[in-house]
Amino acid sequence: MNKWTGCGRLTSDPMVYGQEKKVTKYTLAVDRRFKKEGEPTADFINCKAFGKIAEVIEKYVRKGTKIAISGHIQTGNYTNKDGNKVYTTDVIIDEME
Predict the structure, then answer these.
(1) Using an 8 Å Cβ cutoff, are 89 and 78 in contact?
(2) pLDDT tens-digit series, residues 31-50
(3) What is the predicted pLDDT for the residue at 22?
(4) Distance between CA 25 and CA 38 in Å, rounded?
(5) Which residues pair with 44 in a beta bridge?
(6) Using an 8 Å Cβ cutoff, are 42 and 8 in contact?
(7) Rounded mean pLDDT of 82-89?
(8) Which runs of E-coded beta strand occur in the chain?
(9) CA-CA distance, 17 to 10, in Å (whole number)?
(10) 8-19 burial by CB neighbour count: b if 16+ within 10 A, else e?
């Protein structure tokens, strides 16, 4: 099963791609439940949305907006301009509130 659910705030306005078929990308700051001294207090989750969900995000969601999302993890990789392989992990949004 590939399912991820979380709640957090956007770290910046979502980036929107595409004219007819919308795609949005943003980072969600999710507070850690238990915090140890000297450790970060949040995790930063890369998220992508497509279609109708992307349209709603583009219209209503801005930096600092708190949202709850449910989706699935998708990994990938690409070669950057320096020739190094970069690995990515994103949550693909299936539902949002």
Answers:
(1) no
(2) 988 777 777 789 999 999 99
(3) 87
(4) 30
(5) 29
(6) yes
(7) 96
(8) 4-10, 15-17, 23-31, 42-50, 66-79, 85-96
(9) 17
(10) bebeeebebeee
Residue 16's pLDDT is: 93
Instruction: Tell me the pLDDT band of 53, cut-offs 50, 70 and 90.
Output: very high
Supply the Cα-derived Rg of the chain in whole angstroms.
14
The pLDDT of residue 67 is 96
- C-alpha 69/C-alpha 39 separation (Å) is 25
Q: 23-31 and 15-17 as β-strands: parallel, antiparallel, unpaired?
A: antiparallel
Q: Are 30 and 6 in contact (CB under 8 A)?
A: yes
| Cα–Cα nearest to 27, from 8, 4, 53 | 8
Where are any strands of DSSP class E within 56-97? Answer: 66-79, 85-96
How many CA within 13 A on the CB side of residue 70?
3
